[in-house]
């Protein structure tokens, strides 16, 4: 088989790239190691920046997101038992975010891909990338007991943090930066009405909690937990009781509980690999970088990488220019590092770090107090939360 762009990974990054390339008349095949239902079972992001919505619009896959997504103009910070609203819309001169689940984005992209008759190979085993430092890269994989080779002009590594693409780059050609946090997030999804119509980010001395949603009748909640906790030891009742402990009295009274549809623990990590291009191999999304979820930036960064990569390939095929390809890594990394900084900062501010002691706790409270009472500080938070433009400082 031959294609112009071989995409490894059918998560949101790979599927969105496939959709955008199709709009520009560029041929792409996606190779995914899992089944569609497995990909859809991963409950992850919930907050989409305007930049991401714009890319979904350009890919022609945003109709359901506009119809069913919830536009949010603000969110709340809860500390010392009080909630404080950050009015993103007013503070940023009109920006907002869309609350719409990653599962739904993925489903919309899968449906559009199937409707357009585009090729996705699911359940591909032993996927390997070869010769990306030469003129004719290849992706090899096994399917139904047979070995297949996909020859291409470029490989897009959209295969997530544990994928094969970054791992195939010689160690000397890549530099990585990492911080692992000493806690994880226990997430619970339930068909209950959200505790309030906006997200609540709660800082308490019992740990962080987040109240989010997937619509008016489905809620997504998270608790900071020690990395040693096991999800099977957290009953639904224990989850709801602990969440109550971390909320203010009004939210506690409004909290509706119910059986969980899904519960899982995710470790928190900051990670960046530099550069993001190796010859004809381009990394995008979680394959190149990870942010802790506090800033809601992971999926949005995956989308902006893909936006730059789409432009690079469109320049190459349609305008015979290599400029986008040559600047891809630098352009992505600039936006990535800003989101890394914001996600690290917001994580450090909101979580409980036992090792920093009572002084550390006081510093967090003083910063939160400043943040909600200084318009300049609130604006900085709001500006980062809604997402920086793709061509900032250009
Ligand atoms: P994905 O989603 O991991 O998809 C990668 C795909 O590649 C496949 N794959 C392979 N395929 C072929 N061969 C191989 N060798 C392969 N190895 C892997 C995988 O099966 C998979 O299908 O990466 P992608 O596309 O870069 O997307 C990134 C996002 O999924 C991620 O950044 C976000 O979910 C992060 N995130 C959030 N991001 C936001 O923007 N807003 C949020 O509100 C938000 N909340 C979150 C989050 C992540 C969370 N967890 C669980 C880490 C909340 C949580 C709890
Ligand atoms: C989510 O709804 O899953 C979500 C929302 C905001 C975050 C992280 C996750 O910061």
Automatic annotation (TrEMBL):
Keywords: FAD, Flavoprotein, Monooxygenase, Oxidoreductase. It holds the Pfam family FAD_binding_3. InterPro entries: FAD-bd (IPR002938), FAD/NAD-bd_sf (IPR036188), HB_mOase (IPR012733), RIFMO-like (IPR050641). One of its GO terms (biological process) is benzoate catabolic process. GO terms for molecular function: 4-hydroxybenzoate 3-monooxygenase activity; FAD binding. Its EC number is 1.14.13.2. It comes from the Bacteria. Residues 2-343 form the FAD-binding domain. This is 4-hydroxybenzoate 3-monooxygenase. PANTHER family: P-HYDROXYBENZOATE HYDROXYLASE (PTHR43004:SF3), TRK SYSTEM POTASSIUM UPTAKE PROTEIN (PTHR43004).
């Amino acid at each position: 088989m031959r294609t112009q762009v071989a995409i490894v990974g059918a998560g949101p990054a790979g599927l969105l790239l496939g959709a955008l390339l199709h709009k520009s008349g560029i041929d792409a095949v996606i190779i995914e190691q899992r089944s569609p239902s497995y990909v859809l079972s991963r409950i992850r992001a919930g907050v989409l920046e305007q930049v991401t919505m714009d890319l979904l619009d350009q890919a022609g896959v945003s109709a359901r997101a506009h119809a069913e997504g919830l536009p949010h103009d603000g969110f709340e910070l809860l500390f010392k038992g009080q909630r404080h609203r950050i009015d993103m819309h007013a503070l940023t001169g009109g920006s907002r975010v869309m609350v719409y689940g990653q599962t739904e984005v993925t489903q919309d992209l899968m449906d559009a891909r199937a409707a357009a008759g585009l090729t996705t190979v699911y359940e591909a085993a032993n996927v390997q990338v070869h010769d990306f430092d030469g003129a004719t890269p290849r992706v090899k994989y096994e399917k139904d007991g047979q070995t297949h080779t996909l020859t291409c002009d470029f490989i897009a590594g959209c295969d997530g943090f544990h994928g094969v693409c970054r791992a195939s780059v010689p160690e000397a050609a890549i530099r990585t930066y990492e911080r692992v946090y000493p806690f994880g997030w226990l997430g619970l999804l339930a068909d209950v009405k959200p505790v309030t119509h906006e997200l609540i980010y709660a800082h308490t001395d019992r740990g962080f909690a987040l109240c989010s949603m997937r619509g008016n009748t489905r809620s997504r909640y998270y608790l900071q937990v020690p990395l040693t906790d096991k999800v099977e030891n957290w009953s639904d009742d224990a989850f709801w009781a602990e969440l109550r402990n971390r909320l203010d009295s009004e939210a506690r009274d409004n909290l509706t509980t119910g059986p969980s549809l899904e519960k899982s623990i995710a470790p928190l990590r900051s990670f960046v690999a530099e550069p993001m291009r190796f010859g004809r191999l381009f990394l995008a999304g979680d394959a190149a970088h990870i942010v802790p979820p506090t800033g809601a930036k992971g999926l949005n960064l995956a989308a902006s990488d893909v936006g730059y990569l789409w432009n690079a390939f469109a320049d190459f095929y349609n305008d015979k220019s290599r400029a986008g390809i040559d600047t891809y890594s630098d352009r992505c990394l600039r936006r990535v590092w800003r989101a890394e900084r914001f996600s690290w900062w917001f994580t450090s501010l909101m979580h409980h770090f036992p090792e920093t002691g009572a002084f550390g706790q006081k510093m967090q409270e003083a910063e939160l107090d400043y943040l909600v009472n200084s318009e300049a500080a609130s604006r900085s938070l709001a500006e980062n939360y809604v997402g920086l433009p793709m061509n900032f400082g250009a």
